[in-house]
């Protein structure tokens, strides 16, 4: 028996310490703060690696380490502990979080170099790492909730990092609020578990290798309720329909944040929650069906939005939603899909983080311009960015041999393997999504790195855009950008992630390594594939080619107009995120404003009035009120006298009773 | 006879109040320091009480109160000077003693005479003496185990509070000093009348209780059980008590005095109202309503739970609609009091432990938020949210502590209020699922009103009027930093408080003869 489990707390403690030091340390740490933050993130990764080696040394059934720190909320009949559980599932996340996290810390050293609040930025990043690790290491749902909300807080702080921009502050608040709706789901799920099982710790509820969980002792209806509430929570955190609206706005945050939090790790927490709670979902097929529907709808929703956006980060955000939709879909398939959901989550963590860092590198060299219509031909100026971004691109569209090919293909296969009509529909959606993915990613690639250099002013100044130019000049953005490659601290993480984007999928799939690693936790089932795996792969290849070809025809062969054409009805709707915010605005914002305004009025006139009126009519108090304002002491005496009278009357009354 | 620790703990601030008031007019600073030292000494005494208190004490004769003192007082009416504490009382005494030094320190300059110099009376001495007087009365209310003794101080504390609200209002007012003065008087009188009416109704019930029981002693009841009461009598008496506590707590629809009082009073006095004085109301529900009238309490539970639920949602919605920072916090408090009352009347261990913990946590979190808000308001001279913007840029520490206070108010997991709020919700849900679920939506609204407040005041472009705003000063930091540390500490490790509170809750649960609902899987076996 080793003492490796004592390292688990250190995993969380290292970045937490970093956050505390950086946020309380004051200006004197400005010079070294970013390196402290990066070092502690890396330390966490090292602890994770040591634990990983330790787990590999055990046989598959005993790869669970636990560490009990202290009793957190001990109340009669209610027990919540601060205790950790590290198994293959959490281990996978730990390596992803700390690995990609450390790289992005390193990247931020360069990216945030000119920001005067860089120390604070690293403090928030460390806070995020600590919270995210807590989320995946907690051994009960209430402690998970702390991590869950902690990452939400970090996300809030980082989206709104440039607080002086009203749009950033609004986006941060929106993200937090939408997530709170999800939190209602998580709260209710925990409460339901408590009233049903008397506990909400993973072991007793979900079961272990030794004994089955309490989920077996209750009705399917209860489990469906719990599962749906967990799904609501997952929808919030992972930006799934209907709680998807915050993710696009979250791109207001600095790009490393978009890469780490809003692509690679935090937004996948919903998938973790579902897979972790597999035992609950497995026993609630109705809820699973809802999960798959949410996943399928979101994967199409995100993909369609991704096609229409001209803002490179928002296009990638749509893509993130869509890819997480794949994961949720896979998680909803039960044991057929759990492993592949997580595998896609990991490979997506590599290539999407890499794509975002690439986008950040492009912005870095382009005066923070995000409009892809003002890019073009950048491959000559940013070769490293071009190559790493290109590899990420090939990975996400599922180019054979790269990471995305293995993980996404498996999900599509699994969707068909669900069997029956559902299998065909879900598989069809997943295939269609693959085609759209190929389309919008090719579009991003072509608009950014190929074609004319639309950022050159002589070419962009066309008479068709008088309304745009003054605004741009007003913002001081009319200076022609000088695209250049980013510094080493930024390119190294991009190269590392590109490496993962290329090889991770293949490495995981050779000999089904990833499957064998996770299966003891999640279980696995082959389902009922209606067609052979080869057929699915071929179909995927066909739609991939179709998607790329259409994008090529539209954006490769023809020059890209600097001003977006009006577009079809669908395009225009997609640009507005399929009208999600218009809906929210009309129903929630307007409605809410009317409600609160009328309540303020009601409180002032009606409630106050009625209570005052009742009091006045009962004791002639309104007259006395005026007197009290004139002479307090005398009137108080009168009140006391009145009180005494009531007292005597009451005594007499009681005697009579 | 042992040392009368409880009497001394309450008497010290009372004597301190007299001494502070007696400080010569010119020695204002001396009065401040005296008051601060007295409040710190009281805190030391409260800690001694905490240490001497044994959470696992098992009474042989059933009298579970500890550190008891008992003397005959008005023998003809069976009124005794009787003190004693259980875990709930101890926790709230500690909270009170803890907050008063911060309130004094935060209000350090709130009662300085204006430049024009009104030296006719001694505002500084009066202000701090009144705060100490309130402290003394609140502490003895938590200690009294004689119903009449409790009643006296429950009512008497209205007088210093009236003067604190009416005499020392916020100088920041958009319509000038004249209007401020009028609104202050209105708020003070409204506070007084609401509470006076509640108190008078309670007085009738107190007398009624004497008629039935023949004495006022809770300790006697603990030993010998409740007197026999007809169901209808019990219900009437319960309503009399409850009404007074519901005004003080305050519960919808008796809440409208609170926004006025908190809006017009200075921020430290607002904290005194909501974090300290109002806790006597919720404490008394647990102590008197549930212990004296268990059957009637259960009878009234459905109605009270619905009112509490309305308070939660209504208070939060009203907070969203406020344009005045302090009134916003007041409505938030109404929402939080709804949670506390809901936890008490859910009649589960989790609910009641949660409610008691909530009282402590709400005291700390509201103090943190309101005091920082007060610092902010004193800098700009306005309570209107719209007058601020971009403060984060010029005063990052102020903004940071304000954010932590806001996050505590919205019950962020990891901070103290989360633990209590979740316990209340889970305790309510266990018995009343629908009410529990609706109340859970309060967490969305809480996020809305706190984060909108933060966004509008702290973020965005810097408004010219706040551009020269200084960051927190040392004195202000000394006030806020310990509160922040406590919020984090009790969020991570609330066990010290729950250990004290749990046995008392167990006692209350057995007094009302209620058992926790069993988990479904165990009930099935």
The number of helical elements of chain B comes to 22
Average the pLDDT over all residues of chain A and give the rounded result.
85
Helix proportion of chain A: over 70%
* Beta-strand percent range of chain A: under 5%
Tally of extended strands of chain B?
Answer: 2
Shape, principal axes of CA atoms of chain A:
globular
Q: Using CB atoms under 8 Å apart, which protein chain pair has the greatest interface?
A: A-B, 81 and 88 residues
Physical arrangement of strands within the biggest beta sheet of chain A: 1-2
Categorize the overall geometry of chain B: globular
What does this 3D model show about the protein?
The complex is a heterodimer of chains A (657) and B (525). With 657 residues, chain A is mainly alpha-helical. Chain A has 27 helices and 2 strands. Chain A has a two-stranded antiparallel sheet. In chain A, strand 1 (65-75) and strand 2 (78-86) form a beta hairpin. In chain A, helix 1 packs antiparallel against helix 2, helix 5 (141-159) runs antiparallel to helix 6 (166-197) and helix 6 runs antiparallel to helix 8 (220-237). Chain A is globular and about 90 Å long. Chain A starts with 5 loop residues before the first helix and ends with a helix. In chain A, 55% of the residues are buried. In chain B, helix 2 runs antiparallel to helix 3 (87-106) and helix 6 packs antiparallel against helix 7. In chain B, strands 1-2 form a two-stranded antiparallel ribbon. Helices cover 73% and strands 3% of the residues of chain B. Chain B starts with a helix and ends with a helix. Chain B is globular. The mean pLDDT of chain B is 89. By secondary structure, chain B is mainly α. The chains are: A mainly alpha (657), B mainly alpha (525). At the A-B interface, strand 1, helix 5, helix 6, helix 25 and helix 26 of A face helix 7, helix 12, helix 14, helix 17 and helix 18 of B.
């Amino acid at each position: 028996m080793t003492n490796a489990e004592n390292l688990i707390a250190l995993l969380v403690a290292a970045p937490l310490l970093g956050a505390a030091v950086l946020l309380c340390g004051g200006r004197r740490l400005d010079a070294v703060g970013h390196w402290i933050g990066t070092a502690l993130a890396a330390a966490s990764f090292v602890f994770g690696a040591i634990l990983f080696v330790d787990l590999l040394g055990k046989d598959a059934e005993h790869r669970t380490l636990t560490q009990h720190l202290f009793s957190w909320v001990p109340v009669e009949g209610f027990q919540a502990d601060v205790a950790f559980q590290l198994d293959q599932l959490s281990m996978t996340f730990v390596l992803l979080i700390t690995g990609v996290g450390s790289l992005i810390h390193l990247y931020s050293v360069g990216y945030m170099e000119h920001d005067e609040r860089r120390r604070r930025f690293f403090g928030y990043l460390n806070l995020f790492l600590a919270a995210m690790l807590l989320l995946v290491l907690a051994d009960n749902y209430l402690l998970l909730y702390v991590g869950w909300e902690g990452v939400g807080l970090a996300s809030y702080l980082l989206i709104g990092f440039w607080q002086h921009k009203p749009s950033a502050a609004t986006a941060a608040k929106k993200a937090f609020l939408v997530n709170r709706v999800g939190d209602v789901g998580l709260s209710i799920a925990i409460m339901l578990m408590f009233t049903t099982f008397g506990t909400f710790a993973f072991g007793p509820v979900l079961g272990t290798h030794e004994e089955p969980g309490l989920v077996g002792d209750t009705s399917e209806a209860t489990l469906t309720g719990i599962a749906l509430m967990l799904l609501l929570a997952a929808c919030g955190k992972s930006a799934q329909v209907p709680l998807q609206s915050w993710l696009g706005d979250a791109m207001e945050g600095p790009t490393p944040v978009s890469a780490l939090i809003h692509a690679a790790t935090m937004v996948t927490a919903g998938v973790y929650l579902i897979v972790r709670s597999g035992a609950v979902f497995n026993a609630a097929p109705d809820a699973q069906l809802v999960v798959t529907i949410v996943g399928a709808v979101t994967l199409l929703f995100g993909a369609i939005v991704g096609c229409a956006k001209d803002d490179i980060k928002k296009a990638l955000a749509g893509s993130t939603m869509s890819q997480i939709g794949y994961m949720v879909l896979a998680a909803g398939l039960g044991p057929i899909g759990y492993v592949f959901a997580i595998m896609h989550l990991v490979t997506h963590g590599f290539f999407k983080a890499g794509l975002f860092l690439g986008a950040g590198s492009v912005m870095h060299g382009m005066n923070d311009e995000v409009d892809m219509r003002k890019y073009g031909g950048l491959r000559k100026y940013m070769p490293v960015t071009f190559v790493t971004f290109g590899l990420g691109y090939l990975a996400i569209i599922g180019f054979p041999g790269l990471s995305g090919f293995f993980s996404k293909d498996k999900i599509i296969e699994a969707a068909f393997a669900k069997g029956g009509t559902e299998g065909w529909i879900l598989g069809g959606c997943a295939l269609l999504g693959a085609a759209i993915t190929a389309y919008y990613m090719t579009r991003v690639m072509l608009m950014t790195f190929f074609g004319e250099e639309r950022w050159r002013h002589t070419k962009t100044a066309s008479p068709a855009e008088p309304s745009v130019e003054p605004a741009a000049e007003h913002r001081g953005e009319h200076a022609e950008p000088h695209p250049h490659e980013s510094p080493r601290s930024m390119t190294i993480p991009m190269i590392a992630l590109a490496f993962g984007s290329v090889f991770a999928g293949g490495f995981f799939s050779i000999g089904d390594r990833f499957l064998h690693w996770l299966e003891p936790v999640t279980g696995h089932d082959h389902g009922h594939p209606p067609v052979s795996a080869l057929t699915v792969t071929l179909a995927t290849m066909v739609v991939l080619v179709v998607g790329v070809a259409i994008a090529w025809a539209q954006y490769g062969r023809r020059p890209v107009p600097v001003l977006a054409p009006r577009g079809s009805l669908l395009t225009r709707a997609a640009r507005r995120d399929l009208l999600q915010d218009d809906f929210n605005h009309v129903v929630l914002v307007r409605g809410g404003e009317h409600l609160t305004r009328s309540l303020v009025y009601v409180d002032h006139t009606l409630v106050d009035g009625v209570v005052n009126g009742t009091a006045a009519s009962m004791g002639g108090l309104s007259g006395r009120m005026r007197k009290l304002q004139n002479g307090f002491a005398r009137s108080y005496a009168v009140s006391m006298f009145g009180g005494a009278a009531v007292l005597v009357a009451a005594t007499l009354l009681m005697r009579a009773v | 006879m042992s040392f009368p620790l409880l009497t001394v703990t309450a008497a010290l601030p009372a004597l301190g109040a007299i001494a502070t008031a007696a400080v010569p007019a010119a020695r204002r600073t001396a009065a401040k320091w005296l008051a601060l030292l007295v409040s710190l000494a009281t805190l030391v005494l409260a800690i001694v009480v905490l240490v001497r208190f044994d959470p696992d004490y098992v009474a042989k004769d059933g009298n579970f109160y500890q550190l008891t003192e008992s003397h005959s007082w008005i023998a003809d009416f069976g009124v005794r000077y009787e003190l004693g504490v259980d875990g709930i009382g101890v926790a709230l005494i500690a909270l009170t003693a803890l907050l008063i030094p911060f309130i004094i320190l935060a209000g350090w300059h709130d009662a300085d005479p204006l430049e024009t110099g009104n030296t006719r009376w001694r505002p500084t001495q009066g202000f701090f003496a009144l705060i100490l007087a309130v402290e003394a009365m609140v502490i003895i209310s938590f200690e009294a185990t004689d119903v009449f003794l409790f009643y006296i101080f429950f009512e008497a504390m209205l007088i210093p509070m009236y003067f604190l609200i009416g005499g020392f209002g916020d100088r920041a007012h958009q319509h000038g000093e004249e209007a401020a003065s009028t609104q202050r008087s209105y708020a003070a009188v409204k506070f007084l009348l609401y509470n006076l009416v509640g108190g008078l109704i309670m007085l009738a019930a107190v007398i009624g209780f004497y008629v039935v029981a023949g004495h006022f002693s809770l300790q006697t009841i603990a030993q010998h059980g409740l007197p026999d009461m007809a169901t209808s009598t019990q219900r009437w008496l319960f309503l009399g008590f409850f009404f007074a506590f519901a005004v003080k707590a305050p519960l919808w629809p008796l809440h409208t005095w609170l926004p006025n009082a908190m809006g017009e009073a200075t921020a430290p006095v607002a904290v005194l109202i909501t974090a300290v004085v109002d806790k006597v109301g919720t404490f008394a529900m647990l102590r008197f309503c549930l212990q004296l009238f268990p059957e009637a309490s259960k009878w009234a539970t459905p109605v009270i739970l619905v009112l509490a639920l309305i308070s939660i949602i209504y208070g939060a919605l009203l907070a969203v609609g406020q344009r005045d920072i302090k009134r916003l916090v007041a409505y938030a408090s109404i929402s939080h009091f709804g949670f506390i009352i809901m936890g008490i009347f859910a009649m589960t261990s989790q609910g009641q432990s949660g409610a008691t913990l909530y009282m402590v946590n709400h005291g700390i979190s509201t103090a943190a938020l309101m005091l920082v808000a007060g610092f902010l308001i004193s800098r700009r001279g306005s309570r209107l949210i719209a007058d601020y913007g971009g403060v984060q840029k010029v005063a990052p520490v102020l903004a940071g502590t304000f954010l932590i206070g806001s996050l505590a108010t919205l019950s962020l997991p990891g901070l103290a209020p989360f633990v209590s709020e979740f316990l209340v919700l889970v305790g309510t849900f266990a018995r009343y699922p629908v009410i529990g679920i609706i109340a859970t939506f309060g967490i969305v609204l809480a996020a809305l009103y706190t984060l909108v407040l933060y966004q509008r005041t702290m973020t965005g472009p810097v408004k010219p009027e706040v551009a020269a705003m200084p960051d927190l000063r040392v004195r202000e930091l000394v006030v806020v930093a310990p509160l922040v540390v406590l919020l984090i500490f009790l969020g991570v490790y609330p066990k010290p408080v729950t250990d004290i509170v749990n046995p008392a809750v167990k006692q209350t649960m057995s007094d009302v003869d209620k058992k926790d609902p069993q988990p479904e899987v165990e009930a099935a076996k």
